[in-house]
Write a structure and sequence with these properties.
single chain, 191 residues, mainly beta, four-stranded antiparallel β-sheet, 0% helix
């Protein structure tokens, strides 16, 4: 008998920042080969194109979806991440930077529940979560006060300074002003 010889073929050269997905059409198996490596494909194995690993900085994150299960996970930086053979990812996003005098309101896309995240924080939104713009906390000086209205109950509260605070998702600042400076021998009539 005769043997059929194919080749010669070049090995696949992967550096430390690269990976490739290999497909075996006989078994249907897909697998990832990570660099650094000189890889020699098995018989019948078909190679995808060489891809770059995800390189995430400290202020970055990416949402990765498993195309078989639909499971979503979030990968945060700093990190170098190699997706599995069945994972897809969207664009690399920037974490929400919240200073000590700031906060954000997060809304769960499934339940509608709202939560507050206060700074300082480099915040990574959870899956299905919507994040408000970065908001400034209310900063009342020693001689200031404000009225806050709760939109759920309709109640208005008085808050005196000095105080720095974040409004809850259902609160609204109605008025913020200075206290009336009165000496011990002065008074005021309120109608």
């Amino acid at each position: 008998g005769y043997a059929i010889v194919e080749g010669p073929f070049k090995k696949i050269e992967l550096d430390a920042s690269q990976y490739i997905i290999m497909n075996d059409p006989k078994t249907g198996e897909r697998r990832v080969v990570e660099g650094p490596k000189m890889y020699m494909p098995k018989p019948y194995e078909i190679s995808g194109k060489i891809e770059k690993k995800l390189s995430l900085l400290n202020n970055q994150y990416v949402q990765v979806t498993d195309s078989l299960t639909g499971h979503i996970k979030i990968i945060t930086g700093p990190s170098i991440y190699t997706p599995s053979a069945y994972e897809n990812y969207n664009q690399i996003m920037t974490k929400v930077e919240i200073a000590i005098t700031q906060y954000i309101i997060c809304t769960d896309g499934k339940t509608g529940e709202k939560t507050i995240v206060e700074g300082p924080n480099l915040y990574v939104p959870k899956e299905f979560e919507q994040v408000s713009d970065v908001l400034n906390k209310i900063n009342l000086k020693n001689n200031e006060y404000c009225h806050i209205k709760d939109s759920k109950s309709g109640l208005v509260s008085l808050i005196e300074g000095p105080k720095v605070f974040a409004l809850t998702p259902f609160e609204k600042l109605i008025i913020q002003q200075e206290l009336l400076p009165l000496s011990f021998n002065q008074y005021v009539f309120i109608k």
